[in-house]
């Protein structure tokens, strides 16, 4: 996109604020899962730095794709309160096994969009007996404030027209379609639950419409 420049009176040209999503850098990123390209973007509308991890020759149609919401506690600290860290690892492994694919890592999505400190406050309420939906509402916060428009614009910049979406969340599919990306298939990304996250996962299935059929096999977990 181009940057607009305005002129005020007799002074020097004044640069107006940029808008939209701009590709900034494309760098090789070898990982324990395989070799990726880290394509970095600036979302000028929200002020977030974003990154897409691209593996192989992705083409334009039916690209195996994961939209992964930032989760510091799960992705970096290995929290078992959620399944986010395992999903991120599983997605990276899946695109490498496929031979090509994309993991769009969405910053600004912490705690389904409420931010890190608010998420920790919600987790404290969950420890007292509220579920993840009730905790957000008790704090006066939205249940899910995520916007996937930036993900769609990143995919469009990468030349992707349609994806095979690695997700259990039907809202991600709906959001991509709404923003002009065809979803040819939804590919489940199911992580075995543990005692620490089974209640959270059941709430995601029952109250947030996530497709998690594997939970039926672990009725013994409390």
From TrEMBL:
GTP binds at residues 66-70, 87, 110-112, 132, 167, 172. Its EC number is 3.5.4.25. Residues 22-188 form the GTP cyclohydrolase II domain. Binds 1 zinc ion per subunit. The active site is at residues 144, 146. Signal peptide: none annotated. One of its GO terms (molecular function) is GTP cyclohydrolase II activity. The keyword Cytoplasm does not apply. It comes from the Bacteria. Catalyzes the conversion of GTP to 2,5-diamino-6-ribosylamino-4(3H)-pyrimidinone 5'-phosphate (DARP), formate and pyrophosphate. This is GTP cyclohydrolase-2. The gene is ribA.
